Amino acid sequence: MQGIYFPGFNIFFEKVLSAITILNVKIPLYAVCVTGGFILALIIASKEAQRTGQNDEDYLDFFLWLVIPAIAGARIYYIIFNHERFIQPGKSLGKTILDMVNIHNGGLAVYGGLIAGVLAGFIFAKKKRLNFPLFGDTIALGVVAAQILGRWGNFFNRECFGSYTASKFRMAIPVNYFSSGYFQTLRNEGIITSEMLSNQELVKGIACFTVHPTFLYEGLWNLALLIFLLLYRKRKKFDGELAMIYVAGYGLGRFWIEWMRTDSLMIGSLKVSQVVAAICFFLAVAVIVKNRIDIKNGKTPKVNYVPNKKTEDDSEDSESEESESKEESEEKESEDKKKKDKKNIKDKLKASKESDEEEESDEEDEDDVEEEPTDDAE
After folding, report:
1. 147 contacts 222 by C-beta, under 8 angstroms
2. Could you state, in chain order, the average pLDDT of each consecutive group of 10 residues for the chain (378 residues)?
3. How far apart are CA 138 and CA 47, in angstroms?
């Protein structure tokens, strides 16, 4: 019972593994997706760094430095808002710590990783004396791409799905895929609901519960966000704007998608991710609005706005201006040469005319001398 189906679109994956074995080593596909996401993020950030005249090696250093803080932050965030799963009466301290450290069965929260990443990025940028807002813009492009790939890890793990649905977009998961113990845990935590089990659907003769594929919704939302950022990056108004658009855009999408999930971390009756998403959205929008107002009023925004920052478009314009300037300079030199040549010709003509006049004057003087009578003649 290892299939995952999308009956609304007649798409049937008959065998979806959660891990692969290489040389007797079991490698979770979730880990493969997360690792691939890190690599993709590094490639995109490095390319963007080169485009904007930054040192791309700084981003390699940062991503190598980021791995442990990001995973630790994602795990700590999950433990804080799901502590009852780890801290239980009668459970030994050693067993509690071991369960907290063990991430083999999942338990990583994206927002925890992002928060840890921002803190790590701030420290790294300060240590390297980098422009933190520009650094954030560059990283944002890589992070959103990594999230797109990383979400497919949830697909392989059959996790982070939404509530029951009979819509065309429904994802069908065989009920018997989960071991009895794990299935009971998911039931106790409310991840697999009574509504799912009471509305089972037979797909290829297999009993399945159908749910919203929220991992896919978030992946498509992030893909749209990435495309927008790539198209808008050359038109940004200040350094840090791309990062703020990412924070606001991801927060908006996550707030909507979180409504459908059944595995959300909770604070009382509130979903933690929705609260964090709402805070991030309004803060990011406030920063964007504030900086745009400052720019409109001729003030320098707080995020190191560089009004004359050179981009590829500016480079092309500069080359065009240099070409036009060169042509104007050549035309001017040509005109100056013509004027100089005319002046030389005029000077030569004038000198020739003066020479002729002097010769005529000398001839007249000679004639006057011959006609004058002398004393001997008298």
Report:
1. yes
2. 94 94 90 93 96 94 90 89 82 85 77 92 94 95 96 93 96 95 91 96 96 97 97 93 97 96 89 95 96 88 47 48 53 61 62 57 50 42
3. 9
